[in-house]
Amino acid sequence: MCRLVTSVRDRGNDSLAATNQRKMDSKDVKQDASCCSPVCVHNPHLDALKDDVLYHFSLGTGTHDLPAMFGDVKFVCVGGSPWRMKSFIEYIAAELSMEDPKAEYPNICAGTDRYAMYKVGPVLSVSHGMGIPSIAIMLHELIKLLHHAHCTDVTIIRIGTSGGIGLEPGTVVVTKQSVDATFQPKFEQVILGKTVVRNTDLDQSLAEELLQCSKELSQFETVIGNTMCTMDFYEGQARLDGAFCSYTEKDKQDYLSKAKEARVCNIEMESSVFAAMCKLSGLRAAVVCVTLLDRLKGDQLSSSHEVLHSYQQRPQILVGSYIKKQLKAKAAHK
Amino acid sequence: MCRLVTSVRDRGNDSLAATNQRKMDSKDVKQDASCCSPVCVHNPHLDALKDDVLYHFSLGTGTHDLPAMFGDVKFVCVGGSPWRMKSFIEYIAAELSMEDPKAEYPNICAGTDRYAMYKVGPVLSVSHGMGIPSIAIMLHELIKLLHHAHCTDVTIIRIGTSGGIGLEPGTVVVTKQSVDATFQPKFEQVILGKTVVRNTDLDQSLAEELLQCSKELSQFETVIGNTMCTMDFYEGQARLDGAFCSYTEKDKQDYLSKAKEARVCNIEMESSVFAAMCKLSGLRAAVVCVTLLDRLKGDQLSSSHEVLHSYQQRPQILVGSYIKKQLKAKAAHK
């Protein structure tokens, strides 16, 4: 099992990323060649913990047999809404012919209302709430959970909603690169009061495989492009319909046009920290979001409930199809 | 009804705050003297909207009679957990002798799983999820809701949980000032890709009244102090138990000691944007958080469910007592 121990003290650089790279060539990792691709934590202090309480999941190493519960997980899908993540597990169960018509899929995190978690076979579905801090708490505990459960070769995909830029509503965007509000591909993490810059690279081959899957499905438009990740839904995304707005329609259009020039196809609120944390922990990661509206044409989400609901199913359908294809290929390979 | 129209384009300064101050002396506001203290939006574009869809509440001006539903609201309590905000409305209903033993308190936002909202008499209880982006979306839509409902003289209190610094677990902290991870009393809002700095002042007289209330209750320790608001629960709060940690126990202790020197009593993840947005909209605001552990002594939330649950009731008890006292005083004044 891989644990990349870091003792480098943070001095404003991303010591974790640098240490990660150094350790990749070290004996520690070479000795771990037996496991194909583990889920890595980078925290020497975890060894000192008798039990590890995953507080926001209401799970823990002292109270739950995590390897027995999660050891077979190969795909993790995450999304903001707990309802959507429950609907995804029902959908994937049917797709994989693993549904139990008698069973309700129980919420594994029923002891808390912070996140919801469902599992069927090798697929885990977890909600993360809205915004970077909310998904970051979930990812810290998810990465530790997968590590404690000795999971290997895990693919993680965020299935979400977003505002599109110059795209027909309902278009699905597979993220090439997550960029910040100044269109830079970086995530700023504050540690001990100092800002550390982290890389937001996602797995390009996974993105291409997802695009290929969508072509084969041929049910809706899917594109690959950059995704802007913001800290706010209203002023942070140049919306004109928040409680506060100190800029004009022209200011908004100018800003979104600049985003478009930087190849931003859509805007959401979680992709940058998702990309950064998955990269640090060695998870193969993708972001697949449907656009609910074209932000060049408006700000309000005023489409009917039915239309918005059908759009939200598209990332589920695409990712469901991808997982099915992967499992089929793996079974054929055996 | 007050609407402080701003046409000043954002150029890196906090134009809203500046405009707010100027407009306070202007005719526009003087003409509004009939309303004691309205809930202010600062967005000239809202006039152009036929209907205003409050998407994350699943409410809207075109679909709901907001003045009839919310016009009598005088107290809004917000907190991260939907379960806790339901339990608060049940508690306050009993405290105010307004409970209906036959009634379940319905979730007013039942059409969405993003936030939960409950109401009894003049008290509204709303969940906000975890982190600055999540509470900011809720506050934009709450401020618009209160504005559309023509509410006046509204007091808003965040009742939350936090990590304490050098305090006995279970101590309640009423926030004097919300500070960032460098202990500065400011909130940075990114607008059109530029950073605008906003003030995080809270209502000092309200904080003192809450402290006085706690003295009268005499059930648990309550202090007034600064609250540090971070973007992350693990690395952002110098925890040693996240998936990633590149610093030592000594680094952590040094950082928390500096926080203590800056009079930080507790750490949470929402107070700065809460303070900033409430100030801009003219809401009388306070933050009341219980400390679940002493961060100088540990990081993990490993106390029993019962102990943590009893701690979490303390802000509810304090704020319940405050609301009851205010309503009694108002009734006596009539």
UniProtKB/TrEMBL annotation, chains A, B:
One of its GO terms (cellular component) is cytosol. The keyword Glycosyltransferase applies. One of its GO terms (molecular function) is uridine phosphorylase activity. It is an enzyme of class 2 (transferase). Phosphate binds at R114, R158, I159, G160, T161. It catalyses: uridine + phosphate = alpha-D-ribose 1-phosphate + uracil. Catalyzes the reversible phosphorylytic cleavage of uridine to uracil and ribose-1-phosphate which can then be utilized as carbon and energy sources or in the rescue of pyrimidine bases for nucleotide synthesis. Shows broad substrate specificity and can also accept deoxyuridine and other analogous compounds. The keyword Transferase applies. Substrate binds at Q237, R239. Pathway: Pyrimidine metabolism; UMP biosynthesis via salvage pathway; uracil from uridine (phosphorylase route): step 1/1. Belongs to the PNP/UDP phosphorylase family. It holds the Pfam family PNP_UDP_1. Residues 74-323 form the Nucleoside phosphorylase domain. PANTHER family: URIDINE PHOSPHORYLASE, URIDINE PHOSPHORYLASE 1. PROSITE patterns: PNP_UDP_1 (PS01232). It comes from Lates japonicus. Keywords: Glycosyltransferase, Transferase. Its EC number is 2.4.2.3. This is Uridine phosphorylase. One of its GO terms (biological process) is uridine catabolic process. Gene3D superfamilies: Nucleoside phosphorylase domain (3.40.50.1580). CDD domains: UP_hUPP-like.
